[in-house]
């Protein structure tokens, strides 16, 4: 029998709760749903009013993985949606605004990806993001060195950076902005990526060309583009184990000497939230004018 539960007055049909989605650890779909219920408060804060892109992996990371931005077929009418502009014409996307819609989306088995702008101000970014992606044999350890450089460089321009793991191999840096056109943020981020490449002695590349990336950290500034999205804080990732895009402290970044130091799984997050709360919550209260903006 397929379980039906009620969340905030909405009836949800939850399927295949015993299905193993993360074969490395035996983590099941039921545990995925429990995880998202555990981190719902901070996750919802980061999802709210941001159109959701779905990276779905309903049979686990070894099965079919596919990306979708449009409202999925069968979406309940009580799930909020919004019209967003696209170059090919307007489209409708999902907004996850409450616990019921979060659990509905989690039941689809998805990574949560969101843009740096909100639905009511499309293409006006209120966050800046850098995605630090290491090319083997570089690891997150090298990303941490680059992150500290970027933190200080952003501070010189009056921006306060916050860090989270990507939930895969690298790090993400975020800063809060007064809303500004996404292309201006992209241009600014690109200029800092170039500075990092020039200043860090062969450790960094700002170019996406894969042949340039071995043993370097790719500072991906392109996720500031209006059409791009980034893994939302606290989302699970489609990896062999249930890894989380987890906020981290700057002392943790500075002290990282092994990738395991900044690898976090679903089972780690309740304790971290109990100890630190949401390390990214200052993003909701800060809004800094971008230099030249």
From TrEMBL:
Domain DNA ligase D polymerase: 28-279
GO molecular function, one term: ligase activity
Keywords of the record: Ligase
InterPro entries associated with the record: LigD_pol_dom, MtLigD_Pol-like, NHEJ_LigD
Gene3D superfamilies: DNA primase, PRIM domain (3.90.920.10)
Pfam family name, one: LigD_Prim-Pol
PANTHER family: BIFUNCTIONAL NON-HOMOLOGOUS END JOINING PROTEIN LIGD
Protein name: ATP-dependent DNA ligase
């Amino acid at each position: 029998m397929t379980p039906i539960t009620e969340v905030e007055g909405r009836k949800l049909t939850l399927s295949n709760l015993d299905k193993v989605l993360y074969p490395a650890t035996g983590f099941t779909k039921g545990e995925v749903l429990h995880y998202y219920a555990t981190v719902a408060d901070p996750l919802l804060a980061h999802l709210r009013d941001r159109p959701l892109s779905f990276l779905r992996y309903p049979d686990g990371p070894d099965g079919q993985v596919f990306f979708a931005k449009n409202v999925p077929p069968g979406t309940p009418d009580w799930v909020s949606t919004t019209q967003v502009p696209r170059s090919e014409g307007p489209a409708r996307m999902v907004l996850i605004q409450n616990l019921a819609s979060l659990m509905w989306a989690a039941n689809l088995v998805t990574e949560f990806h969101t843009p740096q702008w909100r639905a009511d101000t499309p293409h006006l970014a209120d966050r800046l993001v850098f995605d630090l992606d290491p090319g083997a044999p570089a690891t997150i350890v090298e990303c941490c060195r680059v992150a500290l450089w970027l933190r200080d460089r952003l501070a010189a321009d009056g921006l306060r950076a916050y860090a989270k793991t990507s939930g895969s191999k690298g790090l993400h840096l975020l800063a809060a902005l007064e809303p500004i056109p996404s292309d201006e943020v992209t241009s600014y981020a690109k200029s800092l990526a170039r500075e990092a490449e020039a200043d860090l002695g062969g450790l960094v590349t700002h170019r996406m060309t894969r042949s340039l990336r071995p043993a370097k950290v790719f500072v991906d500034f392109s996720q500031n583009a209006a059409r791009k999205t980034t893994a939302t804080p606290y989302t699970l990732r489609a990896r062999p184990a249930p890894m989380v895009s987890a906020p981290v402290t700057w002392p943790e970044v500075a002290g990282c000497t092994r990738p395991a130091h900044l690898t976090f799984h679903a089972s780690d997050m309740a304790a971290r939230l109990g100890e630190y709360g949401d390390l990214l919550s200052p993003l909701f209260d800060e809004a800094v004018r971008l230099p030249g903006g």
